[in-house]
Amino acid sequence: MLSNVFDFHLPQQFGTPDNSKDGESESAEAAAAARPPDHQITDGSRDADLEGAYKIYEKLINGAISAEEVCQSEVLVRIKDRLQKHIESTKKSSRTSALWVQYMDMLDILRKYISAERTGNWALHLQAIQDMLPYLAASGHNLYTKSARVYLQQMHNLKTEHPEVQQRFEEGFHVIRRSDRLWAGLSPDLVIEQVLMRSLKTSGGLTRGRGMTEQQRLLWLLSMPACAEVNQAMEGLTGVNYNTGEQNKDMTKARQSRDWKDTLTVLSYLQEHNPFSNDPSFRNIATGENALSTVNVDIAQSVGTAILKSMDGLTPAEFTFKRKDQAVTLGMKSSVRIDGDQIQVDPQLLFQRLVIVAQNSDELESALKYELCSYPPALFDSTLLLREAKKPALADAIWGLIGPHVPADNVVDGCQYVLDGGALLQRIPWSHGSTYKDICHQYTEYVTKKYGKAVVVFDGYESNNTKDMTHHRRSKGKIGATVTFTADMIVTMQKEQFLANRQNKQQFLSMLSEELQKANCETYHASGDADLLIVQKAVQCATTNNTVRMGDDTDLLVLLCYHASLDSHDLFFCSESRKTTKKPRIWNIKATKQLLGPDICKHILFLHAVLGCDTTSRLHGIGKGASLKKFKESDIFREQAEVFYAHSASTDDVAEAGEKAMVILYNGTSTDTLDSLRYHRFCEKVASSSTYVRPQVLPPTSGAAKFHSLRVYLQVQEWKGSTSDGPRPTEWGWQKCVEGFVPVQTTLPPAPEKLLRIIKCNCQADCSTLRCTCKKNNIECTPACGNCRGSSCTNSMQMPCDDDDDIV
Q: What's the pTM value of the predicted model, to 2 decimals?
């Protein structure tokens, strides 16, 4: 069978399914010619189409018309045409939408295949398998692809080579039936597993002491029909018969109720994680993680078709599948290519290979200059997500230093309150059936009754910024549908789903701002992240009156410690009162600054950003309090912090200062680099650990730390309040993509090429010729090699000793 040649294009369709009519295509063409073009279809005609479809449905349920007449309806043809145009438009607007449309097409193919098997429809069976071929090829199911293609070619020739078999298959005998019902066809492989193999393993079967010799197997198999007749006669004699009813189990009320419940669960999930939103990014709707630029699974059908085309003219034995030609999924974490193939990097496997390949300490230290992972694990949670910062830990560390000494002044009445508009949105639940104006009124009453004529500062969501990744993480991948609403419209969406859309959020904040202004509150809108603007307004208010900044964000506490003036009125930072047993902290910023001292307050922006904030990574295994401790103890650490405050610092200066600061954080010495420190830590942990060394417990490489330092510098400059001529994100550790800004991880590959393409030989000679696969690929033999073991051949650093050599 496998000697067939892929030397022709498969037919587009193997035939018309048995339940179709010749008149259907003519009727569809006539309906398509008769219907008006899109620009002539008015809203009224659209409503008329839906009304017409409903009437047809009623007639079908009542038995007034047949299913064939429904299929020939012009109304359904028009609706189908409009739906198809909408699907094509959706696929062009978003790659995520295109992926899900493709997924639905795959489900339709599966349903087509199941229907063909259950009803014995031969033409539909072949068509479904042909439709599967591109997806099988694109997904790497190579044996299925080859076998199914040869199968389709042989079935195409069946009509001329074995017409009697073709006729029986068209009559539905390519499937096996255990009853005469329409929906009772079973695939032969399924029957073999559930009937023949089951009988073989049950009482009386071959596995029950009879033996598995050829004679026993033949005797047992040929006696099966006779045994079946005896079994049927015994059932008739005893009156014990097995009969099946006409009702399918899927038609029971319990099954329908459960299916409907599951359907609602899926719909509810898809409403919160809408794959058909206007967001152009290519993402995982469950986690919100954006795909790498190499991912092309949304065009898997085209990828598979190209693979099938390349098979033409070759036998199955001649054709070789290449991994680089297959579709790249979101689960493929690495973008490494070795000899043109896509390589997924497994950290455990790399570490095991490292032990084999590294024959001396120099090789081991050189290999550890790479991350040995598809992303820097000490800085990233995944291929694109920064390690989430534990920001409250810094506030706890500061409170531990100065908390008992801060004057316990209560916030006096008459203070000016400054509020974070983003946090304000989360304070009030949205009532069902309320209008948007009513909800804005609820917020206004909450603010005026509790805080008086407050100053409210809102974030901006109209443009992308480096904090978009944090917003994406917080929303957990949820993207709500865009809603064009007015003040008098009733809210029909859940609050979380509505605010998960940036356009909805920006429009609602504008409406809320107008209502607050009518209540004599001051409102301000930042172009992006509002943290700096909030602090600036609080500091400005403190020049004329005692001011309270309400909130819980550690970023705001850090910014207040940096920007607040000791010559102004009292400035407090207070947590929102909540129903908890823990007493909320009240920070007197002036007293806090005095107790921390001018040096720490001057450098607190760097101390916060270097160990993780919303736009920088948390260093694995290092707490936020470590930066405060190192700043007090290390002169070298304090010197590096100065570089991050220079307005005109170069990227090289920042990268060098950042690496030295991180070496101190990892308890290194002034002579260490991050790469050398990785080597020493690896050796220490291998010698003392009882399990394998995880990559994230090692310091990051110098290549990855460089971009982390650039992002820290950018954030410090933004917090300082640099003007518009300040650093641009694309020059300081970020790159601009369709979905916004994403962090640059490193410029080095995940591992040395020697580890990624490790090769072993099994030479019987001394590995001196190109017959040795290691020597052929310019790689030295290693202990993984078969005979030489990497030590007794000419292709290794450990040359064999002659007997005459003196051994010292």
A: 0.63
